[in-house]
Amino acid sequence: MAIGGCVSPCKLLFLTQRPLKFTKQNMIFWFRFFSHWPLWALHALGQVVGWLAWLLSPTYRRRFLANSQAAGLSFWQVAGAVGQAGCMSTELPRLWMGKSLRVVWVKGAYQAVKEAYDSGNGVLFLTPHLGCFEVSAQALAESFSAKHGPLTVLFRPSRKEGLAKVMEASRARPGLETAPTTLAGVRQMIKALRAGQAVGLLPDQVPPEGMGQWVPFFGKPAYTMTLAARLALQTGAKLVLIWGERLPWGQGYAVHASDLGQDMAGDVDAAVLQINQAMERLIFQRPDQYLWGYARYKQPRQDAVS
Predict the structure, then answer these.
(1) 221 within some domain
(2) pLDDT above 80 (res 303)
(3) Domain ranges, residue 219
(4) Is residue 169 included in any domain, yes or no?
(5) Is residue 298, in this structure, part of any structural domain at all?
(6) Residue 106 half-sphere exposure toward CB, CA atoms < 13 A
């Protein structure tokens, strides 16, 4: 799902290119250049970037192994995620600036989303850092926004000026709106849900201090956002789990979608735990496409919320 968290895999690219200074101008140039590449070539480049990041950054490597081991997975079960994390970076120019790519809905996914929209209560889409979350938002906007209104996604701009400019331009597309990580952004999402529209979040992204609580994630305490649970409980929105699987050899993407699988608990604490457990189930579907190098168990940052 398009959100500020998608900046994290881009850091893999910077790890391998420290000598270069990425200004606004040359960042836009390179994104436009790579946006014309075929997807298979971008993913091949991404495999190289991912493994270079693995080899060149001991911190990243240790975190990757520690996170996957906490989930009870051996390195050989998640080794593919090393290259896939690089693909998450190199595919962005094509997704943001290039021609549309092949996207298919797996069996039952489109119907699950349609039924959620048809309920008229608004839809809350949740996805972990799994596969290509950018393509999920684009598929939803293309298929449903004309009838049901825009998809609003939580968005925290990159601290890198060049990348922030590219992200801002890429998100200015029909059917997609962004909400800042502020109280005004929260109010914007509540308004969208109450209007029967949809909101997208990455609930496994570490929120700022004061906006989450410590909840088990793969058996370890992880500071977890309460926003998703609060939005669902406050508005009665339908909750849909969604993620975009990266298909091999640049064949495109497959969108998976389903409901929570159980009734949401009536209190925030229990609902947050349910959401974490749902994210774990999604990740176990394709652990080789999860961003294991993400600092999921870090202390929350002290961002100002206004």
Answers:
(1) yes
(2) no
(3) 4-289
(4) yes
(5) no
(6) 13
Structure tokens at 230: 């609060």
Write down the pLDDT at residue 182.
82
Cβ atoms within 10 Å, residue 101: 18
Q: How far apart are CA 62 and CA 64, in angstroms?
A: 5
- Cβ partners under 8 Å of residue 118, min gap 6: none
Q: Is residue 301 part of a domain?
A: no
Beta carbons within 8 Å of 252's beta carbon, 6+ residues apart? 39, 101, 102, 103, 104
pLDDT grade for 210, boundaries at 50, 70 and 90: confident
What is the rounded distance in angstroms from the CA atom of residue 263 to the CA atom of residue 246? 30
- pLDDT for the residue 99: 92
Which tokens hold the place of 143? 């298929």
- Reported as a single tens digit per residue, the pLDDT across 62-73 is 999 999 999 999
Considering only CA atoms, which of 192, 190, 187, 203 is closest in space to residue 305? 187
pLDDT digits (tens, 9 = 90+) for 82-140: 999 999 999 999 998 889 999 999 999 999 999 999 998 999 999 999 999 899 999 99
- Domains contained in the chain, number: 1
User: What's the mean pLDDT in 285-297?
Assistant: 96
| The one-letter amino acid at 265 | A
Tokens 């990757």 correspond to what residue? 64
Q: How many CA atoms lie within 13 A of 238 on its CB side?
A: 21
Structure tokens at 107: 């069996």
C-alpha 117/C-alpha 132 separation (Å) is 22
